[in-house]
Amino acid sequence: MIKFLILFVVGYLLYRSMKTWMFPDARQKKNVSNNAGGQIDDVMIKDPLCEAYFPQRNAVNLEINGNVYYFCSKACRDKFVARQSDET
Ligand SMILES: [Zn+2]
After folding, report:
1. Residues with C-beta atoms within 5 A of ion ligand 1
2. Model's pTM, two decimal places?
3. What CA–CA distance (Å, rounded) separates 76 from 57?
4. How does DSSP classify residue 1?
5. For residue 46, how far is its CA from the centre of ligand 1 (angstroms)?
6. pLDDT over 90 for what percent of the chain?
7. What is the DSSP code (8-state) at residue 28?
8. Distance from Cα 34 to the centre of ligand 1, integer Å
């Protein structure tokens, strides 16, 4: 039974190497890149300050203590930061 297994493995490896010798082009696979751009970026999110909805790709990011906030503009972000620092 083990003999048969070894024979099978050796045979398989031989078959594989034979294949690569005979068809070297088969190993070169084309890099097909399907970049259907902008699918995830079109998520609408809410500005926590002015409560306006806007696409996430236009967002201004701000990270406070591991929480990420998204704002429609830098002005909103700055106001939010000012408000945060006022509270503490
Ligand atoms: Zn805003």
Report:
1. 47, 50, 72, 76
2. 0.51
3. 16
4. -
5. 8
6. 41
7. -
8. 34
